[in-house]
């Protein structure tokens, strides 16, 4: 509702903030070392804002490849310059996939508002609403189905309430 109330530019800013906090949460859950700090700075304060700026100016060609191509090349290079090679691949992969999940994937939601669909000008908010409704209904129905019919646990040590029936 807030995204639709503030318009397309406000939605881009809102999702950029959501991505910032999601990336922050992701990084707090992954162990980092001092050598990662410069790479993380670039991730938070250059890559993330640039990704959302591309969404805001509707430069789809670069928006679609910026993180999976350019950031995935930049992050290991910047990390290598720090000189710490301990668990290098593991550390770099965590930063790369943190960017992919929390920034790249989330940035597609406000990008829905920027699509130019012939015959549907000004109705792009319905796409964003549809995305949110489908995701929420999927989650709720999986929970309900699992509670009503769920008998077989998928991974009881990781998530004790998830069942095969709910997953299906």
The number of helices is 7
Q: Which regions contain 5 or more consecutive residues with pLDDT less than 50?
A: none
Major pleated sheet = 2 strands, antiparallel
What gyration radius follows from the Cα positions, in whole Å?
19 Å
The count of DSSP E runs of length 2 or more, i.e. the number of strands, is 2
**Which percent band covers the strand fraction?**
under 5%
Task: Give structural notes.
With 168 residues, this protein is mainly α. Helix content is 72%, strand content 5%. The chain has a two-stranded antiparallel sheet with strand order 1-2. A hairpin with a 3-residue loop joins strand 1 (153-155) and strand 2 (159-163).
Short description:
The chain has 168 residues and is mainly alpha-helical. It has seven helices and two strands, in the order H-H-H-H-H-H-E-E-H.
Main attributes of the structure:
168 residues; 5% strand; single chain; flat; mainly alpha; 7 helices; two-stranded antiparallel sheet
Write the layout of secondary structure elements.
Blueprint: H1 2-29, H2 37-56, H3 60-63, H4 66-81, H5 88-111, H6 125-149, E1 153-155, E2 159-163, H7 164-167
Antiparallel strand pairs: 1-2
Helix pairs in contact: 1-2, 1-5, 2-4, 2-5, 4-5
